User: Fold this.
Amino acid sequence: MLPEVEKLVVIQDRDLKISAIQKELDQLPAEEEDVREKLASDKRAVEAAKLAVQENEVAMKNLELDIQTRQDSIAKLKVQQFETRKNDEFRKMGQEIENYGNEITGLEDRELELMEKAEKLKSTLASAEAALASSQELVDEEIADIGARRKNLEAEKAELEAKRQAEAADVPDDTLDIYNRLIKSKGGLVVVPLEAGQCKGCHMKVTKSTVVAVKNEHEVTHCENCGRILYAAD
Ligand SMILES: [Zn+2]
Assistant:
């Protein structure tokens, strides 16, 4: 094989590996995003549980206010009852006091129910928070793994790039230019074997003179169909 073509084959191998690594690196942010997305439903569960606890607390406070209002009314009525001298007024007030008393009993029953509910809501919140914490731990681990992978890939890529740079310095500039242009326009393999008269890049038969030129190895020879650089397959 022509020495410069041999070097191009090595460079091509580096380039393929570098671009595969780059592809993998480019996928990492999306992978991180997917991992973080796992927390979303746990976070929503915690938020919902917190909201339920708060709403229940507000409901209990409102009940307490309602009870207090009725207790104030009862106290006021009792003073008025004490001051009145009219029997029917006294009786009417007594009835009102009784009504308020009944209402208070109902409200207190409701308050007890809400207090029991509060206990359940708090334990639901605690479980949701524990689930989120354990998911967070797993997610942190996975994110750390991805970070480690990124570091390895970047190191591997830097090493390949350094080797490629040194190897490219050994190839004549015009040959390297042609190679770089082919890579840009075709991508993938651009230095390919010629097998039984067939270019392994475009899979077309080449002319006799091209076959001879490749065999003679006097100069870099291209496939006349696709322009790829050819070398003789063993
Ligand atoms: Zn070809």
